[in-house]
């Protein structure tokens, strides 16, 4: 397969791709954290779709940070040979609270 860039439209599955995301957590204890993330390469599922794993920590804020480990939902085609994934997870508890992070990651090449 020829080299695929972040703006290339591709029909089918693109192996070894990742997704980035920039989001904010839910408001808890009067503050939010920014969550900057890059997923693992794709994990093919039994139904021939794929998901991604991610782990990391949210940006330090209000004197602390939180960690997370999560899997995305399956690929969602968004047209023009691109797809995204929905995510919805909670951070670890720290300073007496945890945060929810949910949204859609950045599009990546491949419509599957």
Describe this structure in words.
Helix content is 0%, strand content 40%. It has one domain. It is elongated and about 45 Å long. A hairpin with a 5-residue loop joins strand 3 and strand 4. The model has no long low-confidence stretch (mean pLDDT 93). It has no helices and 10 strands. It is an all-beta fold. Strands 7, 8, 9 and 10 form a 4-stranded antiparallel beta sheet that branches. A two-stranded antiparallel ribbon has the order 1-2.
List the helices and strands and how they pair.
Blueprint: E1 20-24, E2 34-38, E3 43-44, E4 50-51, E5 53-57, E6 67-71, E7 75-79, E8 82-90, E9 100-104, E10 108-109
Antiparallel strand pairs: 1-2, 3-4, 5-6, 7-8, 8-9, 8-10
How do you describe this structure in short?
The protein has no helices and 10 strands.
Shape: elongated
Order of helices and strands: EEEEEEEEEE
Query: If you compute it from the alpha carbons, what radius of gyration comes out, rounded to the nearest whole angstrom?
Result: 15 Å
**How many discrete structural domains?**
1
**Biggest beta sheet summary:** 4 strands, antiparallel
The chain-level structural class is mainly beta
